[in-house]
Amino acid sequence: MPPRFFGAVLFFLGLDKLTLVNMYYTKDTILFFNGKFQKAMEAGIDLYSQSLHYGFGVFEGLRSYQTQHGVKIFKAQEHFDRLKEGCKIMGMALPYNTEELIQSAYQVLQKNHLTDAYIRPLAFAGPNMELTIPKEVHLVIFAWKWGKYHGENLLKLGISSFQRPNSGGLHTDAKISGQYVNSILATSEARSRGYDEALMLDMNGDIASAPGANIFMEKEGVLFTPQKGYILPGITRKTVISICKELDIPVVEKSIKPEELESADSAFLCGTATDIAGIESINAKGFKKNWNQSLGSTIQEAYRCQVLEKSFSYVII
Ligand code: PMP
After folding, report:
1. Residues with CB under 6 A from ligand 1
2. Domain that holds residue 51
3. Angle subtended by helix axes 235-247 and 295-307, to nearest 10
4. Alpha helices in the chain (DSSP H)
5. How far apart are alpha carbons 63 and 110 in whole angstroms?
6. Mean of the per-residue pLDDT values for the chain?
7. Shared-domain flag, residues 209 and 247
8. pTM
9. Strand, coil or helix: 137
């Protein structure tokens, strides 16, 4: 877009004074960096950071919602506990307790006047070119306005040629920065083949997950999801399982072959950024049930009520 036309569009949208630097921040955006609040424009990292060279870092992804009880970060405790646990298994010293992290995230939202937002804490390393655990650890918390990662449409998935990493080689149940090279390759390959997203298999050829979300399939009134082992067992996955308990929907965690998924009645992805997203097809093959009649669609509605702190009623017909 020519710069003058872009300027006119920003003026029309009332965004010109915000001076967007890129889609994630403006010149006024504040982040939490090593215990202080500072402008994103003025924060920087050492180019010798081990995280930049080797991907040694741990991150989280949370969402806040404008609920009827004010702005609330969904499952804040669980997300920051996972960040702390991830840092612990990676040997990174993070000098904040979960409550301090939660309060800092709320302040980032407040200082940036954000309500419905995505929050990204990242623990990263100081300078270290050796293949040893870094002594210097930094923490930053960013937040920006971000809609559902895949939008509202049903998703066309393609089975990836990239496998999920083997849990014998990496801590695949933690959100470790470098592991997402694998996710980027899988999503990019899927897009280049005309799909919305990739579906990854594990080293045994069983269904694992999407590059940034877990999967459930419905068959004859039961929901199935891959068991722990090769997946990141997401906080949304856990929420879905607890919604199913409340709604009396049976859930089974087990290994799932691609052929089983192909013959399912319906399927969906779930994750903090993804929300609950119905799947239209896998490798261009659709499902038997219309999404609106699927268990996933009911769970999507129940999840929406839960994040917005609204009550949900469900009638079994
Ligand atoms: N699997 C992977 C690989 C992910 O990156 C994510 C998103 N962080 C998920 C699953 C879903 O996790 P959560 O529900 O905790 O966001």
Report:
1. 61, 175, 209, 212-214, 232, 234-237, 271-272
2. 5-144
3. 110
4. 3-13, 50-54, 76-90, 98-111, 180-192, 235-247, 258-262, 295-307
5. 14
6. 93
7. yes
8. 0.93
9. strand
